[in-house]
Amino acid sequence: MQRAIALNAVLMEEIKQQTFRKEKGRLLSFIRNRVSSTEEAEDILQDVFYQFVSGFEAIGSIERIPSWLYSVARNKIIDRYR
């Protein structure tokens, strides 16, 4: 039982790392086109990935991760303009 839990944790960590590597550039570009500076875009990107890591289990399925990331990014951008 504990081995299964450990393997599950390793698998979840690998999914997070692969997602970061795959989506980082496109997501930063998406954000950068909507904010005034690269520094602000990087701050938002960091916030998005922090929320991704901390709320990973709530996403539901692996297929929904990219759309979830872009939804969070859009919400963070809107929050910056309020």
Task: Kindly describe this structure.
The termini are far apart. The chain is built from three helices and no strands. The model has no long low-confidence stretch (mean pLDDT 90). With 82 residues, it is an all-alpha fold. The relative contact order is 0.14. The chain is 79% helix and 0% strand. Helix 1 (2-32) runs antiparallel to helix 2 (38-54), helix 1 (2-32) packs across helix 3 (65-81) and helix 2 packs across helix 3 (65-81). The radius of gyration is 14 Å and the shape is elongated. It has helices at residues 2-32, 38-54, 65-81.
Question: Secondary-structure map with pairings?
Answer:
Elements: H1 2-32, H2 38-54, H3 65-81
Helix pairs in contact: 1-2, 1-3, 2-3
Strand tally is: 0
SSE succession: HHH
- % residues in beta strands: under 5%
Low confidence ranges? none
Shape: elongated
Mean pLDDT over all positions: 90
Q: Kindly name the structural category.
A: mainly alpha
Radius of gyration: 14 Å
Instruction: Give a short account of the largest sheet.
Output: none
**What gap, in angstroms, lies between the N and C termini?**
48 Å
Number of separate helices: 3
Short description:
This protein is an all-alpha fold and about 80 residues long.
